[in-house]
Structure formats: C-alpha cells, structure tokens
Amino acid sequence: MTVFAGILLLVNALYNAVVWPRFWKRVSQDPRARDAHGRATRFLTVHAVLIGVALVIAAVSAVAGVLLLAQ
User: Fold this and answer.
1) pTM for the complete prediction?
2) Gap between the Cα atoms of 1 and 64, Å rounded
C-alpha cells in the first residue's frame, strides 16, 4: 500500500507540474488579465495565487512520494 501511495503522489505531482504552467500561459494571455493601462487585474492575481498554491502542493506531493518509495 505504501508503494501505491508513493506512486500516486508522484503521478499527482507530475500531472500538476505539466498542467498548471500551461494554464498560466493561457491565463496571462487572456484579455481579462490586464486593464487598459497594462496593470494586472484581480483575474490575473487570483489565478497566479491559485496556480502558485497548486505548484507548491505538487512539490510537497513529489517529496512525500519519494519519501514513501524510499522506505
């Protein structure tokens, strides 16, 4: 069961590491991301925070997966 959990955590980390940066690219190019003066809008700020949190969780998942598999 520990091996399964480790593999699952690594797959989760890999998935998030692939998906979220691509989503950031789309969000940052969205017309709602900047106002008329070129400043970041709340749309961009909220998505930046969400993506940042998701990537931190992915990093924690990767570390936990490696630790579980190293046992």
Assistant:
1) 0.87
2) 14
d(CA 5, CA 12) in angstroms, rounded, equals: 10
> In this structure, what token pair is assigned to residue 10?
């690594």
Per the CB < 8 A criterion, the answer to whether 59 and 16 are in contact is: no
| pLDDT tens, residue by residue, 13-41 | 999 999 999 999 999 999 999 999 999 99
For the beta carbon of residue 54, count every other beta carbon within 10 angstroms.
Answer: 16
**Whether the Cβ atoms of residue 18 and residue 10 lie closer than 8 Å to each other:** no
DSSP state of 9: H
- What count of Cα atoms within 13 Å lies in the side-chain half-sphere of residue 44? 14
Tell me the chain's radius of gyration from C-alpha atoms. Answer: 16
**Pick from 19, 16, 40: nearest CA to 29:** 40
Helix (H, G, I), strand (E, B) or coil at 40: strand
